[in-house]
Design brief:
With 246 residues, this protein is an alpha/beta fold. 44% of the residues lie in helices and 19% in strands. It comes from Entomobacter blattae.
Length: 246
């Protein structure tokens, strides 16, 4: 997931970026509201985090973001803990408001929560048909069968699930995985998708990820195991897949 952080304090930039990076988010930082607005116009972000100071208590900036027809979730950070300020920011279009100082784990939890709600999920475990993914532990499963994925494979599956039924281009996957930094060849996306499909097929799920030639990949909202495994088969097959993933 790609996040834009608008924060003029370099120490806070570093702290927030580090906390989000540790759980797999790609964070881009800028120091001014104007720079943030320029980036928003040209790049897509899954979440926008805005620091609100005493001088920019937020409503104007939030309205400008929404005025650009950007519907990404917005989280405001502020040292101001006043009800009227919060009400104004929410009315302008913000999705959450976090008062400083805060624990990094709380910020991460709030980012994950607004992402889930934005994409229509109410729980930390994403479920699309037989495909399950725990956003907190990054553990995946097909029905009762664990699906052993690498970090990059898990990130791709997360994006596919959050945008289920939507065709995603290879460029979208690269931005999601690398955020424009040290990106490998675009063919790496095909490699990751191929590996995920193979692991799904090994536990009985076929054709869940659809290829639309020239456009990208899509996770079908309706998918079902072609030949569901019984729970007593799970331990043996899970052990085999775990060895392969290692």
């Amino acid at each position: 997931m790609r996040i834009l952080l608008v924060e003029d304090d370099l120490a806070m930039q570093h702290s927030v970026s580090k906390a989000l990076d540790l759980v797999g988010f790609v964070v881009e930082c800028c120091s001014t509201n104007q720079e943030g607005l320029e980036r928003i116009k040209y790049y897509d972000y899954d979440v926008i985090i805005v620091d609100l100071t005493e001088d920019t208590l937020g409503e104007d900036l939030i309205r400008k973001i929404r005025g650009c027809q950007i519907d990404s979730p917005i989280i405001c950070l502020s040292s101001v803990d006043k009800a009227q300020i919060k009400v104004g920011v929410f009315a302008a279009g913000a999705d959450d408001y976090l008062v400083k100082p805060f624990a990094s784990v709380e910020l991460v939890a709030r980012v994950q929560a607004v992402l889930r709600r934005f994409h229509g999920f109410s729980e930390s475990v994403l479920k699309v048909g037989d495909v399950h993914l725990n956003l907190n532990t990054k553990e995946a499963a097909i029905g009762d069968m664990p699906l052993h994925l690498t970090g990059k494979e898990s990130a791709i599956l997360e994006l596919l699930m959050l945008r289920k039924g939507t065709v995603l281009s290879k460029e979208t996957f690269l931005n999601h995985l690398y955020g424009g930094m040290d990106e490998p060849e675009i063919k790496i996306v095909d490699v990751f998708i191929c590996k995920i499909r193979k692991k799904m097929q090994q536990v009985g799920l076929h054709n869940a990820i659809t290829t639309l030639w020239g456009r990208g990949y899509m996770l079908r909202e309706e998918n079902a195991m072609r030949y569901p495994y019984k729970k007593r088969d799970a331990q043996q097959l899970s052990s085999s897949l775990s060895m392969e993933a290692d």
